[in-house]
Amino acid sequence: MPQSANYPTIRDPRTGRRRRLHRVVAETLLGRPLLASEVVHHRDGDRTNNAPSNLIVLPNQRYHAHIEYHLRCQRRGMPFLFPELLSGVLQEQPGTLFEHLY
């Protein structure tokens, strides 16, 4: 499987274009195409781990950057005033990818 910026890709049989596997997995589980603005986040930070339980669909890049910033601060030991805001990202939740849609 070819790599694109360290993300696994697959060839779309309909269009012949390469697509990032995590976006294809998210679309399959949601049952709809992802919007161009939607971002698929890997919980564990491993770009090759495309398990449905590891993927979260976020509404846009701005929200994704916000989450990443706070997760990096938390790893460095900086206190977070509102930890409940990250609870949905940090919790291991069973079920479908749709439950993680924010």
Automatic annotation (TrEMBL):
Protein source organism: Deinococcus xianganensis
Gene3D superfamilies, per database record: 3.90.75.20
Source lineage: Bacteria, Thermotogati, Deinococcota, Deinococci, Deinococcales
Molecular function in Gene Ontology: endonuclease activity
Organism domain of life: Bacteria
Protein name, per record: HNH endonuclease
Keyword Hydrolase: yes
UniProt keywords, alphabetically: Endonuclease, Hydrolase, Nuclease
Stretches assigned to the HNH nuclease domain: 20-62
